[in-house]
Amino acid sequence: MTTPNKTPPGADPKQLERTGTVREIGSQAVWSLSSCKPGFGVDQLRDDNLETYWQSDGSQPHLVNIQFRRKTTVKTLCIYADYKSDESYTPSKISVRVGNNFHNLQEIRQLELVEPSGWIHVPLTDNHKKPTRTFMIQIAVLANHQNGRDTHMRQIKIYTPVEESSIGRRQTIPLK
Fold it and tell me: What pTM, to 2 d.p., does this model score?
């Protein structure tokens, strides 16, 4: 079990982008969910509004599948959770898996969340701090607070590293 890096209350992962070291790439992926209540799906999960959320509608685990068209370098996953608003709908145990497709996903992180409030930064790096290269990320909600059945997730962001080029301007690391 790893403990995610928690930003100070209210800290926005867009501050990461402002440093010029990472870029949000969620729009390059195809997103799917294991289930959702009508009007509480992928659009709400990606709308940059902390008041909206995805709500699952089925049995656990609840899954968010993020698939890229080509192998992609990913460095950080950011999830916004709000226990005060969502109570028993708030995830308490999350598994993050990566792979080429649904059939070969490997868990790279398992998180225990205790009444989270704000952005949770999950490094998608190996033991040497090297970013992960993958076609697919799956976020599995394994348990909720108070043994809740369905889950709420308010926002998810995915970041790729940006590196300095030889002429001094930043560029996205090329895909191979």
Answer: 0.87
